[in-house]
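Subject: Interface between my chains keeps coming out wrong

I've been trying for a while to get a sensible model of this assembly. When I model each chain on its own everything looks fine, but I need the whole thing in one frame so I can look at the contacts. Pasting all components below, labels as-is. Any help appreciated, I'm running out of ideas.
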Amino acid sequence: MSLIAFLGAIETGLLFGLVALGVFLSFRVLNFPDLTVDGSLPLGAAVAATLIVLGWNPWIATAMAMLGGAMAGLVTAWLNVRLKILHLLASILTMIALYSVNLRIMGRPNQPLLGEETVFTPLEAFGLPFYVTSLILFFVVALVIKLMLDWFLSSQIGLAMRATGANARMARAQGVRTEAMVLLGMALSNALVALAGALFAQAQGGADVSMGVGVIVVGLAAVIMGEAVMSTRVIILATLACVIGSILYRLAVALALNADFIGLQAQDLKLITALLVVIAMTLPGMRGKFLKRVKA
Amino acid sequence: MLKLAQKAVAAALLAALPFTAQAADKSVKVTSIVEHPALDATRDGIRDELEAQGFKAGEGLRWEYQSAQGDTGTAAQIARKFVGDRADVIVAIATPSAQAAVAAARGSIPVVFSAVTDPVAARLVKSWEEPGGNVTGVSDALPLERHLDLAQEILPDLKRLGVLFNPGEVNSVSTVASLKEAAGARGIQVVEGSAPDTNSVLGAARSLVGRVDAIYIPTDNTVVSALEAVVKVGQDSKLPVLAADTASVPRGAIAAVGFDYYDVGRQTGKIVAEILRGKPAGEIPVQGIETVTLSVNPASAERMGVTLPEAVLSRAEVVQ
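Reply #2:
Try treating it as a single job with all components included. I did that and got this:
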């Protein structure tokens, strides 16, 4: 694996770490299985790409993309808490609707950004290679978002949101407005996913309507991998685990891309990725068992 | 913060990275967004053409192929890998992979795209004639004028042409836009039938019955996957179905002026070979489809209430 490929994997991992944080917020904190993600990632990409091409400042375009993601999350939450549609179905409905919405926003299925001014353009002035600048930017963004999320989840509202997910009835008895918590949490979660989409489109050279396919699976895998490889007893570790899990997943993909030396071919990629993830998740446990056996 | 075991895993992952030495051989690295018969045929065409030009994989040519298996995150990683490996030429098949490759290569490595319908709209190149930016390639834009020629030759009274496509496929949307323009100039009205997934193809085909004189199927992955549903509607309602690719003719389309993605690959391979011999990619104009074949299915035409003209039958290279 070359340095560029290695840094590229870390970079993609940090970016999908934002998706993992969003998924963590919905699945883990709110206990709300949310598939909106598959639509809100391309939504963020579509909004940012369209606005940038129209001449908007890329940072404002990225902020608008987050706003779009938040609205998508609100729609899912509203379908659930107001119209009483089962959470899973509510999120599926928003996800499929977003496919058409994204096509409408872009006016076509693919909006290229090659040659446009993006959030990376000012960083290139420092003369560093692009694979370093984008890595630094993604690292800073992931770190800031993680710290903000840590702060939020330990604040009064954040604690109320965690209580809503842990035991909604008990939370209501304590005076928490649980419906408002679901609306807020889902908006935040999808805003993070849309942010990832907006940055990804700018790094990758364009937004594509199909880029959301399977994002929820990757996000969920990252969350669960993170939980498997490290302790998540406190919030600051739990959010860190999301990002670590996401980076590990991307390293597994990068490693699988280099697996040709043992006779594996392009079509084996996803199989090898899955096997590497299994190994990464079970090795820590194996070590514990091994040590016990040695002691006995 | 990480436990010892995790550190060990991380170290093992890093140690497994093979830092391969650079040989004097030329290296061509090919990527496509997903496994697909057309995209795979393109890849095989590129490899065979390179071999014919004296660049044989394993003998003086280091050939590598990677598919993103439908994941855009992986597509970005593959592009980074190829740039990191310092490939002599990166070949990217289909638009999303091409955009990722151009974004990662940034002019430092020549990128040749293939099977991209509109490379200018996708911002891969500035223009067809002078692409610039160390990027060039082969477009698979359909030879629509030839398709309309054929449709009018078979159906001289053609006034309303139905077109079935998935509005989510970038190539189909641009094809339909061009089709409307080309057909409009001939006084033919285009009626759209949209099928966002394979399950809705049958319904979309039925919605065209009575509103059109014939159905035209562009190279739309979704609709072509469910072609049999369209053929059935055509046979039940005596509505001729014309296709844009010859592979759909044995499956029941009455005729097609098509091209083979294998030939698109061969054409792409010629460009790659030129670059390997030292020509800058940005100076090679983007090419359109060169080789076409006419394929007909008279039996299916009868079932759809059409008799193929003798001139068409005699010209056809493949008769089902």
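Reply #3:
Confirming on my end. The mean pLDDT of chain A is 90.
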